[in-house]
Amino acid sequence: MSWSGYVDNLMGGGQVQDAAIVGHTDSPSVWAATPGGIFSKITVTEINAVVSGDREKLFVNGLVLGGQKCSVLRDEFSVADNQVMDLRTKNPNGPTYNISICKTAKALVLVMGNAEVHGGCLNKKVFDMGKYLRCAGY
Protein backbone atom coordinates (compact mmCIF):
# COMPACT_ATOMS: atom_id res chain seq x y z
CA MET A 1 0.00 0.00 0.00
CA SER A 2 1.28 3.46 -0.87
CA TRP A 3 0.92 5.87 2.04
CA SER A 4 2.14 8.98 0.22
CA GLY A 5 -1.38 9.77 -1.00
CA TYR A 6 -2.55 9.96 2.61
CA VAL A 7 0.22 12.43 3.41
CA ASP A 8 -0.74 14.48 0.33
CA ASN A 9 -4.33 14.53 1.59
CA LEU A 10 -3.20 15.79 5.02
CA MET A 11 -1.10 18.52 3.36
CA GLY A 12 -4.05 19.82 1.34
CA GLY A 13 -5.71 23.09 2.27
CA GLY A 14 -2.61 25.14 3.08
CA GLN A 15 -2.79 24.73 6.86
CA VAL A 16 -0.13 22.04 7.23
CA GLN A 17 3.64 22.29 6.70
CA ASP A 18 4.54 18.70 7.63
CA ALA A 19 2.64 15.40 7.79
CA ALA A 20 3.38 11.72 8.26
CA ILE A 21 1.87 8.29 8.73
CA VAL A 22 3.99 6.25 11.15
CA GLY A 23 3.62 2.61 12.15
CA HIS A 24 3.87 2.00 15.90
CA THR A 25 3.38 -1.79 16.20
CA ASP A 26 5.66 -4.71 15.32
CA SER A 27 8.42 -2.77 13.53
CA PRO A 28 7.87 0.97 14.29
CA SER A 29 8.83 3.13 11.31
CA VAL A 30 7.83 6.05 9.11
CA TRP A 31 5.48 4.75 6.41
CA ALA A 32 5.26 8.08 4.55
CA ALA A 33 6.16 11.69 5.32
CA THR A 34 6.55 15.09 3.76
CA PRO A 35 10.01 15.05 2.10
CA GLY A 36 12.50 17.07 4.15
CA GLY A 37 10.09 17.58 7.06
CA ILE A 38 10.96 16.79 10.67
CA PHE A 39 8.49 13.89 10.72
CA SER A 40 10.53 12.12 8.05
CA LYS A 41 13.32 11.90 10.66
CA ILE A 42 11.28 10.33 13.47
CA THR A 43 13.18 7.52 15.19
CA VAL A 44 11.96 4.26 16.71
CA THR A 45 12.79 5.65 20.17
CA GLU A 46 10.63 8.71 19.48
CA ILE A 47 7.74 6.56 18.20
CA ASN A 48 7.93 4.37 21.31
CA ALA A 49 7.86 7.46 23.55
CA VAL A 50 4.65 8.70 21.88
CA VAL A 51 2.84 5.41 22.55
CA SER A 52 4.48 4.73 25.94
CA GLY A 53 2.27 3.61 28.80
CA ASP A 54 3.76 6.27 31.11
CA ARG A 55 1.51 9.15 30.05
CA GLU A 56 2.20 11.51 33.00
CA LYS A 57 5.90 11.61 32.12
CA LEU A 58 4.98 13.17 28.76
CA PHE A 59 3.51 16.27 30.43
CA VAL A 60 6.64 16.73 32.55
CA ASN A 61 9.34 15.95 29.98
CA GLY A 62 7.54 16.53 26.69
CA LEU A 63 8.37 14.62 23.53
CA VAL A 64 10.93 14.76 20.76
CA LEU A 65 9.74 14.21 17.17
CA GLY A 66 12.34 14.10 14.41
CA GLY A 67 14.78 15.84 16.75
CA GLN A 68 12.32 18.69 17.51
CA LYS A 69 11.45 19.15 21.19
CA CYS A 70 7.73 19.52 21.91
CA SER A 71 5.48 20.25 24.88
CA VAL A 72 2.40 18.07 25.35
CA LEU A 73 -0.71 20.25 25.62
CA ARG A 74 -3.40 17.57 25.62
CA ASP A 75 -3.22 13.78 25.64
CA GLU A 76 -6.37 11.81 24.87
CA PHE A 77 -4.77 8.63 23.55
CA SER A 78 -6.67 6.69 26.24
CA VAL A 79 -10.06 8.12 25.18
CA ALA A 80 -11.54 5.38 22.98
CA ASP A 81 -13.46 7.57 20.54
CA ASN A 82 -10.77 10.25 20.24
CA GLN A 83 -7.16 9.04 20.65
CA VAL A 84 -5.64 12.42 19.75
CA MET A 85 -2.65 14.25 21.26
CA ASP A 86 -1.91 17.97 20.83
CA LEU A 87 1.62 19.38 21.13
CA ARG A 88 3.53 22.61 20.56
CA THR A 89 7.10 22.79 19.32
CA LYS A 90 9.69 24.37 21.61
CA ASN A 91 11.95 27.04 20.14
CA PRO A 92 13.29 29.79 22.43
CA ASN A 93 14.77 31.73 19.48
CA GLY A 94 12.02 31.49 16.90
CA PRO A 95 8.48 30.52 16.01
CA THR A 96 6.63 27.57 17.49
CA TYR A 97 4.03 25.42 15.77
CA ASN A 98 1.06 23.27 16.77
CA ILE A 99 1.23 19.52 16.18
CA SER A 100 -1.59 16.98 16.38
CA ILE A 101 -1.23 13.20 16.46
CA CYS A 102 -3.97 10.58 16.15
CA LYS A 103 -3.36 6.99 17.21
CA THR A 104 -4.98 4.00 15.54
CA ALA A 105 -4.38 0.31 16.26
CA LYS A 106 -1.32 0.24 13.98
CA ALA A 107 -0.48 3.82 12.97
CA LEU A 108 0.10 7.37 14.12
CA VAL A 109 -1.16 10.22 11.95
CA LEU A 110 0.91 13.39 12.50
CA VAL A 111 0.54 16.95 11.22
CA MET A 112 2.37 20.19 12.01
CA GLY A 113 0.56 23.40 11.21
CA ASN A 114 1.87 26.48 9.52
CA ALA A 115 2.42 29.58 11.65
CA GLU A 116 -0.78 30.91 13.21
CA VAL A 117 -2.81 27.77 12.39
CA HIS A 118 -4.95 26.88 15.40
CA GLY A 119 -4.48 23.43 16.92
CA GLY A 120 -8.19 22.66 16.57
CA CYS A 121 -7.91 22.70 12.76
CA LEU A 122 -5.02 20.24 12.93
CA ASN A 123 -6.79 18.08 15.49
CA LYS A 124 -9.74 17.63 13.12
CA LYS A 125 -7.44 16.67 10.22
CA VAL A 126 -5.71 13.88 12.16
CA PHE A 127 -8.95 12.74 13.82
CA ASP A 128 -10.71 12.36 10.46
CA MET A 129 -7.76 10.51 8.90
CA GLY A 130 -7.42 8.31 12.00
CA LYS A 131 -11.12 7.44 11.86
CA TYR A 132 -10.77 6.49 8.19
CA LEU A 133 -7.72 4.30 8.90
CA ARG A 134 -9.47 2.58 11.83
CA CYS A 135 -12.40 1.71 9.54
CA ALA A 136 -9.86 0.30 7.05
CA GLY A 137 -8.34 -1.98 9.72
CA TYR A 138 -5.33 0.11 10.64
TrEMBL record:
<keyword id="KW-0206">Cytoskeleton</keyword>
<dbReference type="InterPro" id="IPR005455">
    <property type="entry name" value="PFN_euk"/>
</dbReference>
<dbReference type="Pfam" id="PF00235">
    <property type="entry name" value="Profilin"/>
</dbReference>
<dbReference type="GO" id="GO:0003779">
    <property type="term" value="F:actin binding"/>
</dbReference>
<protein>
    <recommendedName>
        <fullName>Profilin</fullName>
    </recommendedName>
</protein>
<dbReference type="InterPro" id="IPR048278">
    <property type="entry name" value="PFN"/>
</dbReference>
<dbReference type="GO" id="GO:0005856">
    <property type="term" value="C:cytoskeleton"/>
</dbReference>
<comment type="similarity">
    <text>Belongs to the profilin family.</text>
</comment>
<keyword id="KW-0009">Actin-binding</keyword>
<dbReference type="GO" id="GO:0030036">
    <property type="term" value="P:actin cytoskeleton organization"/>
</dbReference>
<dbReference type="InterPro" id="IPR005454">
    <property type="entry name" value="Profilin1/2/3_vertebrate"/>
</dbReference>
<dbReference type="InterPro" id="IPR036140">
    <property type="entry name" value="PFN_sf"/>
</dbReference>
<keyword id="KW-0963">Cytoplasm</keyword>
